[in-house]
Write a structure and sequence with these properties.
The complex is a heterodimer of chains A (about 220) and B (about 550).
Chain A (H helix, E strand, L loop, with lengths): L2 H14 L11 H4 L1 H19 L7 H23 L1 H26 L12 H40 L11 H27 L1 H17 L9
Helix pairs in contact in A: 1-3, 5-6, 5-8
Chain B lengths: L1 H31 L6 E6 L1 H10 L1 H8 L1 H7 L2 H17 L3 H8 L3 E7 L10 E7 L3 H18 L2 E9 L2 E8 L3 E7 L2 E5 L2 H9 L7 H8 L7 E5 L5 H9 L3 H15 L1 E9 L5 E8 L4 H5 L20 E6 L2 H10 L6 H15 L3 H5 L3 E10 L8 E8 L8 H23 L5 E7 L2 E7 L11 E5 L2 E5 L2 H6 L13 E6 L1 H10 L1 H12 L3 H16 L1 E11 L2 E10 L2
Antiparallel strand pairs in B: 1-2, 1-8, 2-3, 3-7, 4-5, 5-6, 6-7, 8-9, 9-10, 10-20, 11-12, 11-18, 12-13, 13-17, 14-15, 15-16, 16-17, 18-19, 19-20
Helix pairs in contact in B: 1-9, 10-11, 18-20, 19-20
Classes of the chains: A mainly alpha (about 220), B alpha+beta (about 550).
């Protein structure tokens, strides 16, 4: 049993509304303070929910929740439009890291033959803290680097791309077109948006895949010891 | 001399054999991925690719660019290098070894998204193939040892399936299953995936591998493969909930999507980086038929735009077909579209839009932004091919008259409301009449919007000079099978930045609150970076049921 499996179990308890500590969870809890804390918090939450009085929600509350959900849906839809942009940014970040990795690795560092020389456990213990610290610094460095390159590029683009200046030339005879064209324009816009949103699941799943491997990768990371 | 030639031949042979081995290795890993995985990222011959790129002159110059230098000398890269030193000290592994020996040959990351309503059901598989079997075994041993020392790896359990040993690896964050066989490491978060790999016949058919090979991506550094079938159910679900024009649009998207067998997004290029999107159509579908026909010749407009235009684009469009498609995608209630086409456009031009106007429009349409020698501001031109037919009322002349009429009305309206009038002037350029607008206050210096009909094109330019620049001999016709769409000349942008250097520095100081020296560093860095590249072109190639869009960055010679 590890933390993730423990968290999954705890989530299923919250879904069911009751906590029965399974046999395979028991050995993990004494050794893991965060999981113990989460379990205690889950107990408090379920006890609190059980003792809360049942009420019938007002129509106003129902309406406001529905409106909030609808607004959230619109927001998510809008956000998902940027999924492709996110994918591109991520790709750019990966490429940037590839380049950065290439420079020092291929230019600054001599090649070495890897010969396994595992230090003795006793000696290693002392160095572990420093190594873990280095790894954590490196993780933060990658995040900072990606963020700073992206933000700098964005800010430069904002500075250099001026907003188009309006010529302030009114075309009175075009104004009349607006009304009859409006339904067609709206339909075309809706059709265009639908086609763009149709591809959202592809962008979403691609991001999900990147997230998955980023999440799984810490199994080879020694930062969190 | 002979020994040098022998050595060079030997090295070249060795190098190409190494690349070929990497491609075979990547194909082999792809073949091993179970069929139900929806996405795969293939990293192929990273060591060879990076070696080729790092040897390129543009790469060395880019490394010396002040902006790139700034990143490389930054604290973040320093932190990474300190980590490398530490790991090297501990287990004698460095980034160069990891990069070249461990992940430098062939790597595949495969992902299966969770079924709907089962967020924890996602499956992942990482396959790494190294050149030598001992490299990967050694690496796994060191990683296990290191994490055991750190107390992160809590259990490593030996298991067996059909005589193949594999391990259950319990890390404090996640549990994985892996095996090492020959020179291949396979890791997954699901035991059944590892067992599937053991079951899978090494010679079993693999559509994924065949597609990768037939798409010509064996030389790509990285390829993301997407299986369209993974998203069929989602699309069907979306289509159910739509009505009206949205439903029509979605149906056409879904129909196109269902005709696809695979999508690839790849990064490649031996000497010049390329980003490519490749679509593979299923045989017999409309897309496959369209991509099997010989490609249309590139737009004639490309011969009229200079190769070193800052930005240019040219397309061939069948306007009659495009308008029909547009009309079909609208619902019956959108009668206003028909009203615009039949009533207003026909009334303005005196032509029957479908019968007389559209067949004589195009197919070429495009634009170009150029920076003439010695100029500090670019010139722009937009061109639409128009035929001088039918005889009784030629479309080219009719459109020019209609454009002049609209322009006159707009100017009349502006001048009525403003004290500084816009004047319409005329200039003759080798028998071509060019009309342009003259007003110093609303148009920037050097901008005099111009209109003309020249050599079968209706032109709108940023000045009469832009119209004069438009002629048939500006560049050679494209000679390969790729159809260009958009071209950018980074070196010309560098020239423009240099011409506008002080203005850009002032702009940065004012808007970004940079110091003048820092602003100058940024502007010079961008200009120097752009100068390294001759062109950035977006092209399309369709053949054998495939269509590929390529964005290619060509270094300057």
């Amino acid at each position: 049993m590890n933390c993730r499996e423990c968290q999954d179990w705890l989530q299923s308890c919250l879904d069911d509304g009751r906590i029965d500590v399974r046999a395979d969870v028991r050995p993990h809890l004494p050794a893991c303070e965060p999981c113990r804390r989460d379990l205690a918090a889950a107990r408090v939450l379920l006890d609190g929910l059980a003792s809360a009085p049942r009420t019938n929600s007002s129509k106003w509350l129902q309406a406001s929740i529905t409106a909030a959900v609808a607004a959230e849906r619109v927001k998510r839809r809008r956000n998902s439009t940027y999924g492709w942009v996110g994918t591109l940014l991520l790709t750019a970040a990966v490429l940037a890291l590839f380049f950065i990795g290439t420079f020092p690795a291929s230019v600054n560092k001599p090649k070495t033959n890897a010969v396994a020389k595992i230090p003795e456990a006793a000696k290693a213990k002392e160095a572990n803290v420093e190594l873990a610290q280095r790894a954590e610094d490196a993780q933060k460095a990658v995040a900072r680097l990606t963020r700073s390159v992206t933000e700098k590029t964005k800010s430069r683009l904002n500075v250099f791309l001026p907003k188009p200046r309006s010529l302030d030339v009114e075309l009175p005879f075009f104004a009349g077109f607006e009304e009859p064209l409006d339904p067609a324009a709206k339909s075309l816009k809706a059709a265009g948006l639908t086609m763009a949103h149709a591809l959202d699941p592809v962008a979403h799943t691609t991001m999900q895949a990147f997230d998955f491997f980023a999440r799984e990768a810490p199994a080879f990371d020694f930062a969190k010891n | 001399m002979i020994s040098r030639m022998f050595l060079a031949t030997f090295l070249a042979l060795g190098f190409s054999l190494s690349a070929a081995h990497a491609q075979e290795a990547a194909a082999e890993l792809l073949q091993r991925v179970p069929d139900n995985f929806g996405l795969c990222l293939v990293i192929n011959d990273l060591a060879g690719q990076s070696e080729r790129w790092t040897k390129a002159p543009w790469f060395a110059k880019l490394r010396e660019n002040p902006l790139v230098r700034g990143v490389l000398d930054g604290k973040e890269v320093g932190d990474l290098l300190r980590l490398e030193e530490e790991v090297k000290k501990r287990v004698d592994l460095d980034f160069a070894f990891l990069f070249e020996e461990v992940i430098g040959h062939a790597v595949v990351l495969a992902y299966q998204p969770p079924a709907k309503g089962q967020p924890s059901g996602e499956k992942g598989l990482l396959l790494i193939k190294t050149r030598k079997a001992e490299t990967i075994a050694d690496f796994v041993e060191k990683a296990n040892q290191l994490q055991s020392d750190l107390g992160e790896l809590t259990s490593l359990e030996d298991r067996k399936y059909k005589n193949q040993s594999y391990y259950r690896r319990v890390h404090q964050n996640a549990t994985h299953f892996y095996f090492v066989k020959d020179a291949t490491l396979a890791i997954s978060n699901h035991e059944d995936v590892i067992q599937n790999l053991v079951d899978r016949d090494a010679k079993a058919a693999s559509a994924r591998r065949d597609q990768w090979l037939s798409a010509g991506l064996t030389k790509s550094a990285a390829t993301l493969w997407i299986n369209p079938r993974t998203f069929d159910a989602e699309f069907a679900h979306q289509a159910k909930n739509k009505t009206g024009p949205e439903a029509a649009a979605l149906q056409s998207t879904v129909a196109f999507w269902q005709g696809l067998d695979g999508l690839f997004v790849s990064v490649q290029g031996d000497d010049a980086p390329e980003l490519r999107l490749t679509l593979l159509a299923r045989p017999g579908t409309p897309a496959a038929k369209a991509w099997n026909t010989p490609p249309a010749p590139p737009a004639e407009l490309w011969r009229r735009f200079p190769d070193n235009a800052l930005l240019s684009g040219a397309f061939t469009v069948d306007f009659a077909k495009a308008l029909k498609k547009l009309k079909d995608s609208l619902s019956e209630k959108d009668a206003s579209f028909e009203l615009l086409v039949q009533k207003n456009l026909a009334a303005a031009t005196g032509l029957d839009v479908y019968r007389e106007m559209l067949p004589n429009l195009g197919p070429d349409i495009g634009f170009a932004l150029t920076l003439p020698d010695g100029a500090s501001l670019p010139r722009a031109v937009v061109a639409l091919a128009v035929q001088s037919a039918p005889k009784e009322s030629p479309v080219d002349q009719t459109l020019l008259k209609a454009a002049n009429l609209f322009l006159g009305l707009a100017i009349f309206d502006y001048n009525r409301k403003n004290t500084d009038p816009i004047r319409v002037r005329t200039v003759q350029q080798d028998g071509v009449e060019v009309k342009f607008l003259d007003q110093d206050k609303i148009f920037p210096s050097g901008v005099q919007p111009a209109l003309a009909l020249k050599e079968g094109y209706l032109l709108v330019g940023s000045s009469p000079d832009a119209i004069a620049d438009f002629r048939a001999d500006r560049s050679a016709a494209a000679g390969n099978a790729d159809t260009p769409f958009v071209k950018i000349a980074p070196r010309e942008w560098s020239r423009l930045i240099k011409a506008q250097r002080q203005a850009m520095i002032d702009h940065l100081v004012k808007k970004n609150h940079d110091t003048p020296a820092a602003a100058a560093n940024v502007v010079d860095g961008i200009a120097a970076g752009l100068e390294l590249f001759q062109s950035l072109n977006l092209t399309q190639r369709a053949a054998a049921g495939q269509s590929a869009w390529t964005l290619r960055l060509t270094p300057a010679k």
